[in-house]
Write a structure and sequence with these properties.
By secondary structure, this protein is of the alpha+beta class. About 30% of the residues lie in helices and about 15% in strands. It is built from 8 helices and 9 strands. A hairpin with a 2-residue loop joins strand 6 and strand 7.
Length: about 300
């Protein structure tokens, strides 16, 4: 039986709309004020306080380096994700979905007041690596006592910013990674190569380099354009030709037009590509599909 993706599954980021995602407060920008009776006193105090404020009060924004303030982001429980809904367990999932998103389509749907593509992003981006099951919902939040620790992936920061960015500008810097680790990474940890936060993110980045669809589509003459349209079969055939498996191609409808949104590559537990079963309700089946050019700012 082919791996299946649940009917009506959400095909884009669910970070903001997910009530179980633990929100954290950004550190306020360094607004340290010094009051003193003399300039000398102020200078002495500033010499001590300003470096501290630069470390503690620096807000995390796109394009900035990771804050030196260590913060653990606690994970929510499974019930907050799948209350009353059946799913397989973290130890019984049978395959993985490597989900990759086209950032222009995502930001177009979210709107410019909520979404922005960083200048260093010119390619498909990672949505996540999801443990999945045949004919049922995949597991979620398999370790509610876990937390996302930013220091554990510090060496991956540059690659995460470029290949797995949080495009939602009014959310905490780490929110998207927290969400994917807590919901999916904690369940993937039952497979030894994915055990632990660093292994999960590192292996997902490696898989993205192997299965990033940009060059695959480009080799088939499929390139981003605001005017040229393609069929779902164009996208499917390009991926099938390269990997000899059937991917999942996801689209959205926006202002009466259809846009390429996501590509899923299904993998077995040994990280080998396998066929994905395409759901019956798929907006990519409608005909003319746009693959819009990326726009920054």
């Amino acid at each position: 039986m082919k791996p299946s993706i649940e009917e009506g599954a959400q095909f884009h980021y669910d970070t903001l709309n997910d009530p179980l995602l633990v929100k954290t407060q950004r550190a306020p920008p360094g607004r340290c004020q010094v009051k003193g009776s003399t300039m000398l006193k102020a200078a002495l105090i500033l010499a001590v306080l300003v470096p501290a404020c630069a470390l503690i009060g620096r807000a995390m924004t796109r394009g900035q380096e990771e804050s030196t303030v260590h913060v653990d982001y606690p994970c929510p429980s499974r019930d907050q994700y799948y209350a009353g809904k059946k799913s397989c367990s973290g130890s019984t999932w049978t395959f993985l979905i490597l989900a990759m998103s086209w950032p222009q389509t995502f930001c177009m749907e979210e709107g410019p007041d909520r979404c922005q593509i960083p200048e260093n992003v010119h390619n498909w981006t990672i949505h996540g690596l999801w443990p999945s099951c045949v004919d049922t919902t995949g597991p979620a939040s398999c370790n509610s006592s876990a937390a996302f620790d930013a220091t554990l992936v510090k060496d991956l920061q540059n690659d995460l910013n470029k290949d797995w960015p949080n495009l939602l500008i009014h959310t905490d810097y780490y929110d998207f990674w927290v969400h994917e680790w807590c919901k999916h990474g904690t369940c993937a940890s039952s497979l030894p190569p994915l055990a632990g936060e660093h292994n999960y993110f590192s292996r997902t980045l490696d898989l993205y380099q192997l299965y990033n669809p940009y060059s695959v589509l480009e080799a088939a003459g499929i390139v981003p354009s605001d005017t040229k349209t393609y069929s779902s079969q164009d996208f499917m055939s390009a991926v099938q030709k390269r990997y000899s498996v059937t991917p999942f191609i996801g689209c959205i409808k926006y202002h009466k037009k259809y846009y390429l949104d996501e590509v899923y590559i299904c993998l077995d537990r040994g990280f080998k590509p396998i066929d994905c079963h395409v759901p019956s309700r798929n907006l990519c089946d409608t005909g003319e599909i746009l693959y819009p050019a990326i726009k920054h700012g």
